[in-house]
Amino acid sequence: MRLGTFVMGGLAGAALCMMIQRNRNMSAIADGVGQMLRQRMSDMKENVMQKGIDLKFSGGFLGSSSGKSNSHHAGSSNSAVSKSGTAGLDEVEHLASRDPHVKQEINEILSQNNQHSI
């Protein structure tokens, strides 16, 4: 990268920061975006840590099932479900009971792995 390009980028960034600080609407928007990014990063960090714990202590099966249930539910109200592997399997069983085609697919997968059907 050329030094002139680097300096121009720094000046443009400084000008943008000053513009955001002086305009209340832009400042509020930037604050909202910052809070959203912090929350997303925190959720991703928690999700990665939970997957690592699940993979280490459950042999991988519970980690993959709770990870999939976590990706569909982005709120913190479902964190209790992702904390326990059995709660994750109970949720999968509940979802399967709502759709017979999904239940049939799950039973086929379980029979291929020599496990009992739901």
UniProtKB/TrEMBL annotation:
Region described as Disordered: 64-103
Compositional bias ranges of the Basic and acidic residues kind: 91-103
Compositional bias annotation for Low complexity: 64-80
Protein's UniProt name: Uncharacterized protein
Organism whose genome encodes this protein: Cohnella pontilimi
